Amino acid sequence: MGEAVPAIVSTNEMTKSTREQAIGRVEAWLREQDGGDALRVRTEYVVRNGDGWNVPYNAATFLDGSDVGAGIFPTPVLFVPDDGGELRHEAAAMAVPNPPRAVAEEGPSTWTPVVDSDFDQAAFPKLAPPEKAILRRESVDGAVQPNPAYRPGPLKMGYPTPLSDAEKLWQYRSIGWIDDQTYFRHLTECEVLDVGDNTAYTSPVRVPGEVKSWTRKTLRRLFQEQDGGGSVALDPGTYSVELVRNHVLPDLGEDQGPEPVPGAPAEYRPKVVETVDALVTEFGIDPPRYLTGHLPTVAEQARQYGYLLTEAECLRYARAYALWFRNLRAPVTGAEVSWPDDLWAAGFVEHRATNGTPSPQPWHFGKFFKRISTQQGSNFRWNRVAGAYVGFALGDSIGAQADQHGSWTGGELERGGLTRQLLFQTEAVIRGLPPVNDTAEVPASLPRVGRPESWLNEATAGTGPAPAEFSALLAPALAATVAGGTPVEGIDVAYSQAIAHELIGAAAGPDVTECADLLVRVLWGVLSPAEDLPDQLAKPVYALLLEIRQSLPEHDSLRAELTRVIELRDDWNGDEAAQLESIGDGRSPRSVLLRALFAAAKRGHDPGGAILLAAGSSGSSAVTAALTGMLVGAQRGIPGLPQQWVARLPQLGLVDNVAGDAFYHFHRFGVAREPSAQEAWEARYPRG
C-alpha cells in the first residue's frame, strides 16, 4: 500500500483544505476502487497532518462489528494534501489502529503510538496494536498525547509469562485488550498442542502429567481435520478451559498454517529418557524407578506451580539427583561418597546439615519442592515463599553495594547482613512456635535471635552487619508471615502481625509496628492463593494496595499515602526514578516501605528492574531493595527473578534451605506428620 494513488482533484494552488473536503476526496476515491462500496471512512479519527489530513478507512462490516474477519490490518490511512496533490497511503500513521481523535488544525503532525511492551506485534502480524494497549502517542515535534483508554498489559497485571502465542492471545482477551471476535479470529492461526480426542492445550504448562506426547498444529488445521466441523476442548482442567466450536470462528479458508510437529513434555523426550536410563546404570540406582519415576513426578509438581521444566533442566537435575541418591544410599550399599568440586556447575546448591557441615542438594530451579508434594496443608504457596527469600537476598546484596559505592555496576554479589538477620529471625519463629498451633496463641516472647551455638550462626559467619536503620526492623515481617502458614482457625493476618511485633520489640514505636502490619498484610495477600484468581496466579502488589486502601477509613493518613503510591504507579508516562524519590526521605520506615511498595507495584512484571529501581534510590538502598526483592520474588517466584543474579547469589543454597525449612515446619503435612523426623528436627531447631 505504499504506492501513490491518482488524485481526484488537481489544482495548481490550494489554501488549507477543510476536514470535510479531505473526507469527501477519500470517499470519492473509495467509490472508484474495486469493492470500495464495502469500505468506510473512520471520520472520528480524521486528523491534521502537516500540510494535509490523515484519513483512515476500513471495511464497513468490520467497523460495525458484524464481521470482524473482514477487517484490514493495519488500518489503512490515506494522506490528503492541501495542494490537491495525489492521495497516498501514510505508512507511519498506518501503524496506529485508532489514530488520535480530533486535534486542532494547527496541532502536531504525525503521531506515533507507544505500545505497551506486553503486546507482541511479531507474534501477531495481522493484529494491529489494540487501542487499550497504546500507552500514549508522540509526535515528531515532541508533543505527547496520553491515551485515556490505556490499560496495563497482562504481565503488569500479574499474569505469568506466557509460554505460547495462544496463551498470549488469551491473556490479551482476559484483560480486555481484545474482544471475543478478535480473539477467535487470531486464535485460529495460533499453534496449539493437540493430544487427540478433539482436545488441545494452549501451553505445555497446562498439559496434564499423564500426557506423554502431542502434535503442535494450528487450531485452523485442527478444525479442518474434523469431518463436518465440530468443537475442540481447549485447556480442559485449567483456569482457561473453553469449548471452542467451529461455527464461532471466521472462514477457515485453505491455508492450514505450518506443518504439524510432534512433540512431548521435556521429561518424556527421547534424549532425556535415554540419559535417565544411562544414569540408572552409571550410579547403580536400584530399583530404577527411584530415578525414572522421580523426574516425571517433579515435572508435574512444577506444572502445578505454573512452571515448565526445560529439557536442559531435566538433564541437569537428573544427573545431580542420581549422584545425590547414590551418596544417600552409600552407608547401605558401600559406595564411596564423593561430591564435585564445583557444586553449582554439577547442578547442586549447598544446604547445611545440623552439625554445620555442607549438605549438597540438587537444585530445583525454584519450580518444585521435593520435600512435600501436596499443595494442600499450607496457607501459602511454596514457590512464592522461596521466591520472597531469594528476592530479599538479591535486593539486600545489590542495595548494600549501592549504599557503599553509590551504585551497583553488575559485578559480584556479596552476602548481605540484613539477609543473615532475616535467616536468624526465621530460625527464631521455627524454634518458638509449634508446627501446628491449634490454639493460635502467640507466646509472650520468642527465642533469642542469632544464638551462637546454632548451625546457622556458623554457616553465616563472616557476613557483615545489617544496616543500622530503623527501617531494617521491617525485615522480620517475612519470617512472621511465613509462621502463619498452617491452616488452623485463628492463624491469620493478625496472628502474623502479633509475631512481627514480638520480633521487632516493643521499643520500636508505633510507626514501625504500623508499617510492619501493612507489610504483613501485603505479604499474606501475595503469598496466598487468591480467592478470585486461579491458584497459579499471584495477586499483584498493585491489586493488594487497592484492596487495602479501600478498607481504610476515608481520612486515615495511611490511606492518603497509599493513594499517592497508587497514583504514581498509574502514571505510566512519568519518570519512575523521580516518582520513587518523591516518596519521603528514603530512610524512615514509612518512606522505605512505601518506596518498596511503589517499586513492586510499578515493576512487578520486571523483578530485576524493580530491584534496580529501589537500589538506585537515595536513603537506605539496602532495605528498600531487599523489601522490593521480597515482594517481586513472592509474586514471580525464583524463576521470575533474573537467573544470572540467582546463579551468582552467595549462599543461595542456605537461603533456599532456611526458606524450605520454614515452609516445611509450618505445614500441616510437614514435620508434624513425620514422627521419624522429629528427633532430628528438634536437634536442628531446639524449642525455646
Highlighted features:
alpha+beta, 6-stranded antiparallel β-sheet, 6-stranded mixed β-sheet, 17 strands, globular
Structure at a glance:
By secondary structure, the chain is of the alpha+beta class.
Task: Write the SSE topology.
Blueprint: E1 4-5, H1 19-31, E2 39-41, E3 47-48, E4 52-59, H2 60-63, E5 77-81, E6 87-89, E7 111-115, E8 134-139, E9 144-146, H3 165-174, H4 180-187, E10 191-196, E11 199-201, E12 214-218, H5 219-224, E13 231-234, E14 242-245, E15 261-263, H6 270-283, H7 289-292, H8 294-304, H9 311-328, H10 330-333, E16 348-352, E17 358-362, H11 382-405, H12 417-432, H13 455-459, H14 476-482, H15 493-504, H16 510-527, H17 541-551, H18 557-570, H19 576-581, H20 589-602, H21 607-615, H22 621-636, H23 643-648, H24 652-665, H25 675-684
Parallel strand pairs: 11-13
Antiparallel strand pairs: 1-6, 2-4, 3-4, 4-5, 5-6, 7-8, 8-9, 10-11, 10-12, 12-15, 13-14, 16-17
Helix pairs in contact: 3-4, 6-9, 11-21, 11-22, 11-24, 12-14, 12-24, 14-15, 14-16, 15-16, 16-17, 17-18, 17-20, 18-20, 20-21, 20-22, 21-22
Polypeptide structure, described:
- With 688 residues, the protein is an alpha+beta fold.
- It has four domains: 4-114 and 123-143, no CATH class; 165-263, no CATH class; 267-362, no CATH class; 382-684, ADP-ribosylglycohydrolase fold.
- Helices cover 40% and strands 10% of the residues.
- It contains 25 helices and 17 strands.
- Strands 1, 2, 3, 4, 5 and 6 form a six-stranded antiparallel β-sheet that branches. The chain has a six-stranded mixed β-sheet with strand order 14-13-11-10-12-15.
- A hairpin with a 5-residue loop joins strand 5 and strand 6 (87-89).
- The chain is globular.
- The model is unreliable at 1-14 and 100-109 (pLDDT under 50).
